[in-house]
Every structure is written in C-alpha cells, then in structure tokens.
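Dear colleague,

Following up on yesterday's call, I've attached the two folding results inline so they're easy to grep. Please treat them as preliminary; we haven't cross-checked anything against experimental data yet. The first protein's sequence and structure tokens come first.
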Amino acid sequence: MPHADSLALPEDLDKRQFYEHVCTTLEALLTPASPDDPAANFITCLSNAASLLYGSYENYGQAFGRQDGRRINWAGFYLVPSLLSPATSPASVEPTQLLLGPFHGRPACLSVSLKATTKRPVGVCAAGFLSGETVVVPDVEARPGHIACDGVTKSEVVVPIVVKRRRADGAEEEVKVGVLDIDCEGLNAFDEEADREGLERFVETLVRLVRWDL
C-alpha cells in the first residue's frame, strides 16, 4: 500500500473505531523490517506518526470538521533534550524544558518550560509530562499557564510518552521522553473517554515500535 493511502478512512466510523483504525495503520507504517532497521529510529517514526494523525483528523470531518469550527490545527511532539541533543543534555540530567519534535501544523514554540514560576504555572504540555498522565483541556483560555503558540487553538489534549529502558545494573526503569500534543480550533473537542483512550493507545503503539536510543 502506498504510504499516502494510509490516510484513507472507512465510512461512518465512530470515534473509537476511528482511533482503532489509525492505530492499526500506524502499526503497519512503523513495523520495522528487522529489530535493527535504521528506519525504526524515533525521529523517522514520529515524523510519520504526526503526519498520519494530522491527516487522519483532516479526513474525519464528522468529528473534527472545518465547517463545524472543530478542525485539528496541530499534531506533534515535544521531547526531552537528551533525546535530541544527548551530547549537550545527558539523560542523567533532569530536564528543565521540552523541545519541539516532529509535527504537522503551523510553526510552534521551539520549547516549553517544565518550571513553574510564582506568576505562571506550567503549560499543558509540561503538566502532562510532569504528571505522567493525559491532560484534556476543553477550553485553553480558561487554563492557567496555557502557552498560546497559535491563537486559533481553543482546546487541547496532551499524552505523556513513557518508555522502559534497562539500567547499567540490569534493572528496568520507566523514563518519560516527551508528549504527544493535539490542538483543535473548537472548544470541547476532546472527550475523556474515546479521545483519551484512543490517543493513549496511539502512544502505546509508538512506544512499542520506536527505537528511542536511550
């Protein structure tokens, strides 16, 4: 199947079926030819993942249609510096920010701070990363600390990306490497069930198939 055809959707999908289809397609796109396939690296895989998710939302007009003012205007990733520049940001150092990773949509903030101040709490991406839990925001303007990378965004959902790695002593540990961030031009675009569960499954598929180079 040509990769561009991955964006084709069956008709009359409800949200759960939509995410099931997208996750199945993601697995087909990212399954490496072999465990050491260079194409399994995280930049390559996250680039295709962002494109697949953004394009699939574009084609799923019944839930995220332009005519209803509920268009998805951004889909992508913010990642810990140790992934993107390990020479200058070793994994042993606690990150103070997340850096822009692969995405689709308008230009975005190059980084988001993980540190709150007395005047401003952390933004949505930082909140999802620090808590390790999905954050659904029905109205970003009502959310303290929201970082307005794009003024047309009205609602947002952020899913943390947590992977397992083996330490030098052989023990396994969980490591947070970033977040998946989805923005929408409409209010209340994402629900606490179908969207949350679907996007968490999307991230779980990424975690399983991507080589994270930790």
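Below is the second protein, in the same order (sequence, then structure):
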Amino acid sequence: MDNPIVKKAIMTPKMLTVIVLSMIGSTALVGCSQQADDVETVASKHDAAQAPDYQASRNTGSWGGVYMSREELKAPVINVVDDSSLPSMENDPSISEWEAKFEGTNAFVTTDGKKLYHDSCAGCHMHKGEGAQGAGYYPPLANNSKMQSKYYIIDILINGFRGMPSFHMMMNDEQMAAVTQYVVSDLNGFTDTVTAEDVAKLRHANPPGYDPSE
C-alpha cells in the first residue's frame, strides 16, 4: 500500500461525506425543478393574489405584435386601446373645431382665400407656398410661373392631380375662386382677377385640362 498511485485512489471518510452531501443536494434541486404545475408555492400564492393587468402584455410583442394571455382570452371582450379616458362626441373639443371649418357635408364654410389656403393647402405646400419634399414631392405654389394661369389652378382644384385630391365636393365656386386668387396674387404677385364664374366654366361639362381662355 506504499504505492503513491494507490494512495491517491483511496477516498478518505471526509471526501466520501462531501460526495454524498453533494448528491443529496442535486437530487433536491432536480425535484424542485420537476415540480408539478398545480403544486401551490409561496410564489404562486403571490401571483394569484394580484389582479390581472390586461394592458400589460400589449407592449411585449415584437414588431408591434399584440399577445394575449389565457386570462385575457377568457375575459369578457375588452378594447385593445383603453378608451375610457376619451371624451364623448358631444364633449370632444375637436368636433367643435371641425364644425367651425366644415359644414355637415365636410365642405368648407369660409370664403376667405387665405384661410382656405392655410386650412386645405398649406399642410402639403407649406404656409408660404414654398413646397416640400420628403415622403412625396409637393411642388411650390409661390414663385411658380404655372400659377399665372388661374384656369390651371382651378382645374387641379376641381379634378385633383396625381397625389393631390379633388376639392370638387369641398369647395363651392366662390371658395375655389377665393383660394385661387390668393395663390395667384398673394403668393405670386400676378394681377389676374379670379371669379366664381371662372370656376363655373370648368366645374361641370368641360373635361379636365380645359382652358376657356384658349
């Protein structure tokens, strides 16, 4: 037994005790990890005591996904967006602001050319008519030689052009004349006068692009 290799292979009682205790601890941990789902623990009692937050899971989805828990699926139908804080239609201040600009048919109320421009055109063409470019191209209306032709402007207002919508149902002849006059005179300095009769010439029977002055 004087062989050093044999001495290393022999376990002392202390080493054996450490190994046995390690095995017992590992078995206990495995048992905890394999615990059945229906076993009540301190943590499960704490979770059960808290009321479910139906909005909490809505921000956990990647790429805008909305995920619902089993509790949410079983619950009565609820809105994805909490609308309890939204004002009713009768008390919504934006409704009165809308009605100040539009009639019930979504047609403009005012006949002020500058106001019509800022309410309907400036969102794309900018308040000074300088135009914009980004997600789309919005041509400048100021310092634009095309604006010298009032019929060019009226025709686009009536029929729309490419990405620009038609204002045929939103402005009457007088309103179209007023906003056209603002573009012609205030944004470009041209002296031509625009009347409701000019608009009427293009509004009905004439095809898009028609110029009665030619």
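For the second protein, one point worth flagging: Residues 92-203 form a domain with the Cytochrome Bc1 Complex; Chain D, domain 2 fold (CATH 1.10.760.10).

Best wishes,
A.L.
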